[in-house]
Amino acid sequence: MALTLRIAGEKDDKEWDDTVLASINGTIFHTWSWLKIVERHTKTTLYPVMAYKGNELVGLYPFFVRSHPFFKLAFSPPPGAYLLYLGPLFPGYEHLKQDKREGVYFDFLKEIDTLIFKTLGCSYSRINSSPRLYDSRPFYWQKYSVSPYYTYRIPLINGADHVMGQFDRKLRVDIKKAIREGVTIRIGEKKDLGIIHKAISRRFIEQGYKPKNYLPYLSDLFDAFSPENLKIFLAEYKEQVIGGMIALRYKDVAFLWVGVPKSNVPGISPNDLVQWEGIQWACNSGCQYYEEMDSGEDSRLTAYKSKYNPDIDIWFSATKYSSRIFKIADFIRKDL
Amino acid sequence: MVLRIADDTDQMKWDEIVTNSSLGTIFHSWKWLKIVETHTRSKLIPIMGYSGSTPTGILPLFVQKKGFITMVSSPPPKSALLFLGPVFVGWDSINQSKRESNYLEFQKEVDEYIKKEIKADYVSISLPPKLLDIRPYLWAGYKADVLYDYVTPLHSSLDNLWLNLMKKMRANISKAKKIGFSVELGGKPELEEIYHLMVQRYKDQEKKETIPKSYLLDIFDQFPENLKIFTVKYQGEIITGQIAIQYKDCFISWIGSPKPSKPISPSPNDLCEWEALVYAHSHGMGEFIVHGAARNERLHKFYVKMNPELHTRFSVKKMSFVAHTLEKAYLKIIKPLQ
Q1: A-chain residues within 8 Å CB-CB of B104?
Q2: Closest chain A residue to B295 measured between Cα atoms?
């Protein structure tokens, strides 16, 4: 039976969120509120696609279209939203037989490809699928280029003490040292988003990038998701904020989402203590995993994160151009 | 980390690493590699990485000269192998940071060796199924390809495995038995017969079989305990069959299963695949594996009928501009004509 696609509206928010919950790779970033906030702050149009087989909802696919005067680009997730991955979801995917999984997934991808390139006339599509959806074949077969990326997940099933016991020895020493030197962790409030935003902007400038004003985006997310799903951790030393992060929690996974670059205090690693507090919070909240969100591209960052003895988890990025001309134009643009 | 090229005196040490590491496969074993070397006209460079006097990893590389291009591969073409690549000591028992630093250091040293000593224009490495981390290769400028295998866990009862098959496959198997197809275990003559059927099938498709028969016979002679030959007979004649491999707790449906040249219904290969799985189950194997077919848009439909799990695997490639251009020309012009 062929699939029918429908663009979800505001009235579908509950069904949408229930489906995100019921999908093994559904994340907080797929939830209706998060997607609508992203749409507001990224100058894009959200296409929240629902796929039906008869009357049964079998898949979700949120993507964003950015329109320029001469071309349109489709993304899932869009740039400028501090998101690594998004992509399609399939409720009950893990309970389906493999041939049924493939049937729904492959058909859905084909329909989406037609919607993006033929119906909407996009010149480019980039889809980053979320961890736990490991089948990238339909992208290959729709002529996408596929690249693997790597994030880290720390299993929490044996409790916080066990997790700490698996850390590298030096990391354990650094955490204890930070406590001994008087670094404390405070749960941040909405007004602290300003501190986080400033620290991130400073790091962008140091790296030669022009910082974007993420503050209104972060404020909207704070209003929608705190305190249940979003928590700010700040490390303080001599009444100064010297590190921190915005952590998220959804279903059985807690996420180190936005890290605050540490201040230069010699001999102290405040963010190691921040992570440890985050891990304990995740354990106490009943999470099974703590994800140190990553793409695996920067070997310096992975060396820092691997100290926590996490497992690797794979996600995929798939890109496609409508024609060779756009591909060449994009390479030239990137080169410039 | 220091690299050393192994020789015949290292065979025991090499095989011990292959046996004890979760990444080691039968294709990594010393004897298999030496047979591959003989039949693929390539030179085997078996690299061992040492930290002090302790071996930390191995990587069998094969070097071939094609005109003015020097190619390094693991495995080499025409070896009927879909993967080989590095194997690390204690991969499952060390912490992530140690695993990553060992791997990264080893990869960097090997890359230096390939660049300076072999001066390769083209490097292609297909990693073993359980080595899912390819970041060291990506950081070194390699391009990745994502591959897939179908794996059926054999821990549940045979009744459950039977019920897990797609309805159509169950019907095919029952019908095949009813009309008199029978599956038998064979030896060398049956292996030769399957090979003959494979060559015939390729001929029907206007293709050439690229694996030499002598290679398969040598493998059979050296690995009699591991190779299992299944044939399907009908009216006293072998109509298809497959060569399977039993190693550690895995049972690999390796090569064969040619479509019979005379039209015959139902497909005897469904029965052959099922009987191979039954054999693996009854011999205490943990997994029944079909490598490679899952990524093939046409073939995957045949193998998905067993309701397997989908497992990811990777291959990586790096090449000079000239090698890249030649490869593109080969894939776009020469290969379609073959």
Answers
A1: 299
A2: A137
Q: Which residues of B touch A141 (CB under 8 A)?
A: 297
Phi then psi for residue B254, to 5 deg, are -85, -75
Q: Tell me if A99 and B305 make a contact (CB, 8 A cut-off).
A: yes
- The three-state secondary structure class of A22 is coil
Cβ–Cβ below 8 Å for B148 and A135: yes
From A166's Cα to the closest Cα of chain B, the distance in A is 8
Residues 6+ apart with CB under 8 A from A72: A65, A66, A120, A121, A122, A123
**Contact state of A166 with B295 under an 8 Å Cβ cutoff:** no
Which domains, and CATH codes, for chain A?
4-149+315-335 (3.40.630.30), 157-287 (3.40.630.30)
The domains of chain B, with CATH numbers, are 2-141 (3.40.630.30), 150-312 (3.40.630.30)
Which ipTM did the prediction report? Answer: 0.92
Q: Which of B255, B290, B244, B12 is nearest to B129 (CA)?
A: B290
Total Cβ atoms within 10 A of residue A164: 15
Helices (DSSP H) in B179-258: which residue ranges?
188-204, 213-222
Residue B312 is nearest to which of A102, A134, A310, comparing CB atoms?
Answer: A134
pLDDT digits (tens, 9 = 90+) for B25-60: 999 999 999 999 999 999 999 999 999 999 999 999
Buried b (16+ CB within 10 A) or exposed e, B269-284: bbbbbbbbbbbbbeee
Interface test with A, best of B94, B143, B146 (most A CBs within 10 A): B146
On whether any CB of chain A is under 8 Å from the CB of B134, the answer is yes
Residue range A177-206, pLDDT digits in tens: 999 999 999 999 999 999 999 988 888 888
- Return the closest-CA partner of residue A50 out of A34, A61, A39, A36: A61
Residue B12 distance to chain A (closest CA, Å)? 32
